[in-house]
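TL;DR need structure tokens for one chain.
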Amino acid sequence: MRGRLAADRLRARTGTVRFVQACGLIAGRGATVSAAAAVSTVGSAGFLAGPPITGAFAEAASLRTATLVPLLLMVAMVLLARRLDSGPDGG
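>> reply
TL;DR here they are.
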């Protein structure tokens, strides 16, 4: 609960776009932050679904291609964050 409240306050201070970009960069670097509790459900789903999805990509193409998919998704997250609604609390 504390992580969720801290993440909400940080997002309110930095704006939605900058917050999502920072999260994408942190994910790309493999770092963890104290606000990880806010995304623990999604993280657990990714932990369980990631290896089979990567395996399916590896069988369809190659292991090298399959390992590029998460990297490309993180880059897309950072670049597309600007398209988020920049309402009163946005960046």
